[in-house]
Design a protein that fits this description.
This protein is of the alpha+beta class and 283 residues long. The chain has two domains: 151 residues, Ubiquitin-activating enzyme E1, inactive adenylation domain, subdomain 2 (Rossmann fold, 3-Layer(aba) Sandwich), CATH 3.40.50.12550; 83 residues, Elongation Factor Tu (Ef-tu), domain 3, CATH 2.40.30. It is built from seven helices and twelve strands. The strands form three sheets. It has a seven-stranded antiparallel beta sheet with strand order 8-7-11-5-6-10-9, with no helix packed on it. A three-stranded mixed beta sheet has the order 1-2-3, sandwiched between helices. Strands 4-12 form a two-stranded antiparallel sheet. Strand 1, helix 3 and strand 2 form a beta-alpha-beta unit. The two termini are 25 Å apart. Keywords: Ligase. Belongs to the ubiquitin-activating E1 family. This is UBA7 enzyme. InterPro entries: E1_FCCH, E1_FCCH_sf, Ubiquitin-activating_enz.
């Protein structure tokens, strides 16, 4: 834990970390809360992140946050494995679903017709197919058929690598030259699920395996060779089989690999998962 020193041993981690955290940015208020995570306390936040939390608590708090439209994140590590779960509610808007800059192309010709056909020039790296069916586009700098420059975003139908069908252009002025056709990225609404909803077999069984109590399994010592601890590894594998029995087959090699390292904590893994979780908070 990067914020703690040897002198902090025996103290509450939240209180011991609060002073150093607060010094990182004086514009941010950092408070340590050591009481119960009650619904009244949680309701005051836009985002709740849990780490090192038992599964029962994750399910309970996750369901509450989902019902209250509070973004909910679980971040945890088990040895070399990491867990990151995000529930951003029923109506989470992704402003940039394509995760990239909108594409654009120089216009070569636009026909008068219903529908009109746009022929555009490719680029050295495009190899055609810049656009997809249903994409929304706008036009700028078109000479002759200037009516297109003032149009709102228009849906397109892709004919081939360099031709698009657009709306009715039969009443527009004849195309002369120039112009740019550009993709308009539309926000996309996503619906997330709470942690208590069913997930894939490997994911669900893996989460349950992460949180299995010591009375259900004994994980091998971190770094132990399987041949040296076959009984421990087999117990973990049997637990995984029982957890995933109703949801499909498991990759037993992954379960064995997980079992050999899951009892350890590694700062680099925690740093990576923590950074990913922080990015999700910013979203």
């Amino acid at each position: 834990q990067f914020l703690l020193e040897e002198s902090d041993l025996g103290q509450n981690r939240a209180k011991a970390s609060q002073r150093t955290l607060a010094e990182l940015n004086p514009r941010v208020v950092v408070e340590a809360h050591t009481g119960e995570l009650s619904e009244a306390f949680l309701a005051s936040f836009q985002v709740v992140v849990l780490t090192e939390s038992p599964l029962e608590e994750q399910l309970c708090i996750g369901d509450f946050c989902h019902a209250q439209d509070i973004c909910f994140i679980v971040a945890d590590t088990k040895g070399l494995a990491g867990q990151l779960f995000c529930d951003f509610g029923e109506r989470f808007v992704v402003d940039d679903p394509a995760e990239g800059d909108p594409v654009s192309a120089a216009v070569e010709h636009i026909s008068q017709g219903n529908p009109g056909v746009v022929t555009y020039m490719g680029t050295e790296n495009s190899h055609g197919h810049l656009f997809r069916d249903g994409d929304l586009v706008t036009f700028s700098g078109v000479q002759g058929m200037t009516e297109l420059n003032d149009q709102k975003p228009i849906p397109v139908h892709v004919l081939d690598a360099f031709r698009l069908e657009i709306s009715d252009t039969s009443s527009f002025s004849p195309f002369r030259c120039g112009g740019l056709v550009s993709q308009v990225q539309q926000p996309q609404e996503c619906s997330h699920v709470s942690p208590s909803r069913p997930h894939g077999a490997a994911t669900r069984a893996g989460l349950l395996l992460c949180h299995a109590g010591p009375q259900e399994s004994t994980y091998p010592v971190p770094g132990a060779v399987l041949a040296e601890a076959p009984a421990d590894a087999e117990r973990v594998l049997e637990l995984a089989r029982s957890l995933g029995a109703q949801q499909g087959p498991l990759d037993e090699d992954i379960v064995r690999a997980f079992a050999t390292v899951s009892a350890g904590d590694l700062c680099p893994v925690a740093a990576v998962v923590g950074a990913l979780a922080a990015q999700e908070v910013l979203k």
